[in-house]
């Protein structure tokens, strides 16, 4: 009995100690423990693979309408934008592959485009009460993102399969392979290191996400193929006139950089606007408002018909500038681009 009593006492002390150890740590306590306030997180992913991606439009395009209107040719039947493997390179069997950057020879990592930590991203998270009165508290996430190699396979449009029923053995929906048309044969993006700042709760910085950084090495898009299935015949494998392959506009490379540099200055604000009266809200990206020098674009290896066709030459654009009108007033153009995304 005495042994049981001692065991119970020791257990009680242990439980009490563990309970104290598991109490929430405030910012001061965390600072004393880690040497700094806030939380640092390193994301050590080196590769992400997605077999297929579908974006389903559940009501399709309305059947009513005439040429040039939103309803032209519609059936009001669900369709989907799909991304799947194109049988070549990194996207042979996967629709999207995101990996740490590699050098041009493909033999080693490109350390000039990687964070010094080797992480995919490093996050520094702080919570703050904010200034003034009202609901001013917010979480600030300062993010450093490594350069990435992003390979995207074939992008097409397909008829959507029926949505999974209640009690189904799988949540997969997918598309109808017998009703599918490719739109893009694939592409690869190479990005450089970037910084971003994210604020949730209140956003004293003026937007939920702020990008104000330089992408080292600029942005490069390679092996972009735009397909025209209206010219496709039969099996579409190109073995004969009766099986003509879809026509393709193929571009070997598109390089984008700030004018007169090899790097790309990136500034953007991403905001999500809520419901107002009859408008149910939207996402808006305002970018390029600080780029007063313009952007240089170099397009090489432009081929018409197929990727095997001879190139018609290179295309170069120097000092491209865009403007938008934030107020709608005549002549109130400002430098930058505003992109609004919403459902319908």
TrEMBL record:
User: Any idea which UniProt keywords this protein has?
Assistant: Signal
Question: What is the residue range of the signal peptide feature?
Answer: 1-21
| Residue ranges of domain DUF6160 in the record | 1-86
User: What domain of life?
Assistant: Bacteria
| Pfam families noted in UniProt | DUF6160
Q: What is this protein called?
A: DUF6160 domain-containing protein
